[in-house]
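User: Hi! I'm working on a homework problem where we have to compare a predicted structure to a textbook description. Could you give me the structure for the chain below?
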Amino acid sequence: MPGLQNPALAPRIWPVGVLCRAIAEALEARFNPVAVRGEISGFARASSGHCYFNLKDAQGQIRCAMFRRAASLLDFAPRDGELVEVRGRLGVYEPRGDLQLIVESMGRAGQGALFEQFLQLKAKLEAEGLFDPARKRPLPLLPRGIGVVTSLGAAALHDVVSALQRRVPHIPVVLAPALVQGAAAPGELVKALSNLYRYTQAESAPEADSSQNVTIDLILLVRGGGSLEDLWGFNDEQLARTIAHSPVPVVSGVGHETDFTIADFVADLRAPTPTAAAELAAQPREVWLGALALAGQRLQDAVQRKLDTQAQRLDSAAQRLGRPSGLVARQQWHLGQQAQRLRYAVLSNVEREKARHQALKTDFPSKVSQAIRQRHERLDRAGRGLALLDPQLVLQRGYALLRSAEGLPITRVGQTAEGRSATAILADGEVDLRVLQTRLN
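Assistant: Happy to help. Predicted structure tokens:
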């Protein structure tokens, strides 16, 4: 009859727990043990030591649990994006009715599709020199302004702002919001960075904010932790090139300390966390205030030492000027000494001159007589010498002096000739002669 159903054909009514157990037994009988290859996603290690993650490929994914005993046998540290092969048992987690794979062993099967893309892009940009340490710029010690690129709803924004407010509340911060996860994230990150680049020169700041006169000297690119897929927006090539062309240093604080992205490699400095990026951005205000106080104290000490030195010089000058009588007394004493020496010198010269005058007065007659006698003796010697030269004495010894008729002395035969006249001068007179003959010796 219509409306009546054969009880033999009606479906069995299962209690939920019994159905889950039945499905688990069916899976156990049909598949287990099972080996699966897939890419790790969302890997997490609980405080108990158990590990939870997903294995996925292009067609699907499955939840996995690896208990502490099996995890302790791993010879590597699993991470998101790695392609692995696992062995275990399919089952049903009855409290939630979830299908899960209990992993009993795991081994690497490759790096995974996303990780391979990451390595390829990293190798390409590294070959172009975007990771070269030589192009990394030092962070400014005292930035005039700090730019921050992150999501408005991210916990990283709160961490960065809190750290900057605590350390450098006097430095202005310019926020450029952008998505940090998803397919649209790379484009928004590039746009946010480009907007901040307009603040890197005071004269080129946007007109809407020109009254604030904010100049950015440093940019923080930050995001909290997550899986490889969550952080994939920071592995974009266009974003990497935008960071490389930044006019000011860029600090990348993306994910946790163990997370690495392309943005980390191309940035001027990588920080392990967003909070660490904020702490690296500027020294705490207390440090600079302490340095300023120390410099002020040193300046004050230097000025005080200079004042003390000048005060000592002033005291010394005042002491010299305060007792002029002493200076006058010393000058008078020196003047007396000089006058006494002058008187002694004059008296000594007078006595010497008197002695010389007396000596001259006593010795003058004898000196004059002695001088006259000496001169007479010299005159007699000169007379005798002159007498010896008298030609008359030569004539007295039998010699004669011949003169020509012209009165010239004849000393050679050639000065006369036969028939010429001559005069012979003898000791007692003259004899006229005529040359009869001349002969040469």
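For your comparison, note the following. The chain has a mean pLDDT of 83. Residues 324-388 form the longest helix (65 residues). Good luck with the assignment!
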